[in-house]
Design a protein that fits this description.
alpha/beta, Enolase-like, domain 1, TIM Barrel, 2 domains, 9-stranded mixed beta sheet, 3-stranded antiparallel beta sheet, 13 helices, globular
Length: 360
C-alpha cells in the first residue's frame, strides 16, 4: 500500500504588521494565520498556512480545517484526487469562503508532503525547474509623499516594479500618487495600480483613460470582482491592461471571467483557488488563452507555482508573514529565488511550533 495521510495538526496566530497596509477598501494591521501540519504514514510532514484577513475568521477557519481530519485520514497521499473529493463533498454547502480556505490548506500541505517524500522542490514535482521570478513590491494607500518613499525603498532593494493602492476620492489624487512614485523611481521601474474594487464602471473607464497617459503597467480590480460583464466593459474601453483574479474562488470563476473577456491578465490567489491543485488548473486555462499569470501573496509557495506556470508574469512580494517562517523567500536583485529544498520551502518559526493545537 502506498503513502497515506495519518492526520493533521492545526494552529493559529495573529502576526502584527510592521507597517499597516492601507487600501481603498480598508486597512490591514495584522495577519491572522492558520497553520497546518499534515502527517503521513512514513512520518513525513507537509506544511501550509492560510491568511484569513480578519481575526474574526481565524478560529472558525482553524476549527473547520481541523474538523476535516476524519475526511482525509487513511486516504492515499494523492493531492489532486483528495482536492477534487473535498470539493465534491462540500458542493451543496459551497466551496467559497471559509470552506475553500480549509480545502486549500489541506491541499497545499498534501502537495508539500508529497514533494518532501520525493526529495524534490514542489516546482520540480510539478514538472518544472526552480528559476528566478521577477517580483514587485507593494505600496499602500498612503498619499503621494509616503508612497514615493515606499517606492524608493523597493527600488533600492533591487525591485523593478511596484504596485500602488489607489482609489482616492478624486482622480487628481490618484494621478498625484502615480506622478510622485514615477518621479521617485524613474523609468526603470514599472508602476502598477490597484483599485481594490472601489470604482463604478463609468468611473473606472474615466480614470483608466487618464492613467493610460502615465504608462502604468496594469490597472487592478477597478470594479467589483464578481461583475464579469462590468469588468469586461472596462477592459474593452481601456488601453491599459486590466489585472484581476485574487478574489475569484476556484478555477470555474476564472473560466467564467476568461469567457467574459473580463481581464487581460490573471492573478490567482493560491488559497482562494483551492490550493496547488486549483492553481495548476488555472495555469492551464491561462496557457490555453495566452494570458499572463501573476500571484497574489503567499510568495514562498507562489514562487514554486510560477516556475511551473507557462505564462508566468510577476510575483507579488510581501514580507508580512516572515516572522512565522524560519526561512522566508529570498529576493536577489528584484527576483524571487524559489527554495531548492524538498517541498514548498515552508518551515515554521519556533514560536509557531510552540502554539497549541486547535481541536476539530
Amino acid at each position: 500500500m502506498g503513502e497515506t495521510i495519518q492526520g493533521i495538526e492545526v494552529r493559529c496566530m495573529r502576526v502584527p504588521m510592521g507597517h499597516p497596509h492601507r487600501t481603498a477598501s480598508g486597512v490591514i494591521t495584522e495577519s491572522p494565520l492558520v497553520f497546518v501540519d499534515l502527517r503521513t504514514s512514513s512520518g513525513a510532514i507537509g506544511r501550509s498556512f492560510v491568511f484569513t484577513y480578519t481575526a474574526t475568521a481565524m478560529e472558525p477557519v482553524a476549527r473547520l480545517t481541523a474538523a476535516m481530519e476524519p475526511l482525509i485520514q487513511g486516504k492515499p497521499l494523492a493531492p489532486q484526487a483528495l482536492n477534487h473529493e473535498l470539493r465534491r463533498k462540500f458542493r451543496l454547502l459551497g466551496t467559497h469562503g471559509l470552506v475553500g480556505m480549509a480545502i486549500a490548506a489541506i491541499d497545499m500541505a498534501a502537495w508539500d508532503a508529497l514533494a518532501r517524500i520525493a526529495g524534490q522542490p514542489l516546482c520540480r514535482l510539478l514538472g518544472a525547474e526552480p528559476r528566478p521570478i521577477p517580483a514587485y513590491g507593494g505600496i499602500g494607500y498612503d498619499g503621494p509623499d509616503d508612497c514615493a518613499r515606499q517606492a524608493e525603498d523597493w527600488a533600492r532593494r533591487g525591485f523593478r516594479a511596484v504596485k500602488a493602492k489607489i482609489g482616492y476620492p478624486s482622480l487628481a489624487e490618484d494621478l498625484a500618487v502615480v506622478r510622485s512614485i514615477q518621479s521617485a523611481v524613474g523609468d526603470e521601474v514599472a508602476v502598477m495600480v490597484d483599485y481594490n474594487q472601489s470604482l463604478s464602471g463609468a468611473e473606472a473607464k474615466r480614470r483608466g483613460a487618464r492613467l493610460a497617459d502615465y504608462g502604468v503597467a496594469w490597472i487592478e480590480e477597478p470594479v467589483v470582482a464578481e461583475d464579469y460583464a462590468g469588468m469586461a466593459q472596462v477592459a474593452a474601453d481601456c488601453t491599459v491592461p486590466i489585472q484581476a483574479g485574487e478574489n475569484w474562488w476556484g478555477p470555474l470563476e476564472f473560466r467564467k471571467a476568461i469567457e467574459a473577456r473580463a481581464t487581460d491578465l490573471l492573478m490567482p490567489d493560491v488559497m482562494k483557488v483551492f490550493g496547488v491543485t486549483g492553481w495548476m488548473e488555472v495555469a492551464a486555462l491561462a496557457a490555453a488563452h495566452g494570458l499572463p499569470v501573476s500571484c497574489h501573496l503567499f510568495p514562498e509557495v507562489s514562487a514554486q507555482l510560477l516556475c511551473a506556470t507557462p505564462t508566468a508574469h510577476w510575483l507579488e512580494y510581501a514580507d508580512w508573514w516572515n516572522p512565522a517562517l524560519k526561512e522566508p523567500l529570498v529576493i536577489q536583485d528584484g527576483m524571487a529565488v524559489p527554495s531548492g529544498v524538498p517541498g514548498s520551502g515552508l518551515e515554521w518559526s519556533d514560536e509557531v511550533s510552540a502554539l497549541p493545537r486547535v481541536p476539530g
